[in-house]
Amino acid sequence: MRIYSNLADAVKETERELVEMGTINKPETMQDKNVKGNEDYETKELQGYSYAITSYFNRDIDFQLLGGDMKYANAEIMDRLDPNWLNPGDSYRLREGVWKEFLHNGKFSYTYNERIREQLDWVIQELAERPSTRQAVLTIYDRHQDMANMGGKARIPCSMYYQFLRRKRNNKEYLDVIYTMRSCDFYTHFLYDVWLTMKLQEYVAGSLGIIPGSFTHFIGSLHAYKKDYSKRVVF
């Protein structure tokens, strides 16, 4: 596993490894879209990809230098953490070019807010009452809903779960996070997925009065679509 001290190095090196070692895959679906035979969706893919980031130093600066839209990202984390039930929420309007096509009858098939809001207080309570717990897991994938949507029937979450670990190192207490995804579209979502997870980690750590620690990321399929990588002229 590669270990980085900052967000910028993690993103750049992940792109380099995808460029150099990714293999070609031709998917039949992309979320709820049928893309079979569409060359735009031919992918470069790395399977079982993982890395860790040890420091939050310059996180927001790196995010913006790498092209991240801070206004959208802040609106999205606010939607995710809102105690009210939000679908579609407001943040997608700041990135309509990505999200509007997935709206059906004014709603998304799911939102992170819907999956997170009822679990978050339980996770924080578990961490507060049992600091050494390994059970503080916030799940995004719902087998009852999502398995029925396979095959392009509706969107299925790319995120599987977040595991929070409260641990002491060098006489300080940290909240580490392990983020597991089934799938990640590098050029459209990777940077946002990482930043939003770090912000969620920061929120949980703040609720406990401790310091955000390490970020570890596992991705089943890290990939980039031809329609995106051809513009970058990197493959």
Low-confidence segments, ≥5 residues, pLDDT <50? Answer: none
Give the SSE order as H and E letters.
EHEEEEHHHHEHEEHEH
Question: Percent of residues in helical segments?
Answer: 25-40%
**pLDDT averaged over residues:** 95
What is the makeup of the main sheet? Answer: 7 strands, mixed
Which CATH class is shown?
Answer: Alpha Beta
CATH fold label:
Thymidylate Synthase, Chain A
The number of distinct β-strands equals 9
Shape: globular
Strand content: 25-35%
Task: Calculate Rg over CA atoms.
Answer: 18 Å
- Decide which structural class fits the backbone: alpha+beta
CATH superfamily: Thymidylate synthase/dCMP hydroxymethylase domain
Characteristic key phrases:
alpha+beta, globular
Put the structure in a nutshell:
The protein contains 8 helices and 9 strands. The protein is an alpha+beta fold and 235 residues long. The strands form 2 sheets. Strands 1, 2, 5, 6, 7, 8 and 9 form a 7-stranded mixed sheet that branches. Strands 3-4 form a two-stranded antiparallel sheet.
Give a topology summary:
Layout: E1 2-4, H1 7-21, E2 23-25, E3 29-30, E4 33-34, E5 43-53, H2 59-65, H3 70-81, H4 96-99, H5 112-129, E6 137-139, H6 143-146, E7 159-169, E8 172-185, H7 186-208, E9 211-225, H8 226-232
Parallel strand pairs: 1-5, 8-9
Antiparallel strand pairs: 2-5, 3-4, 5-9, 6-7, 7-8
Helix pairs in contact: 3-7
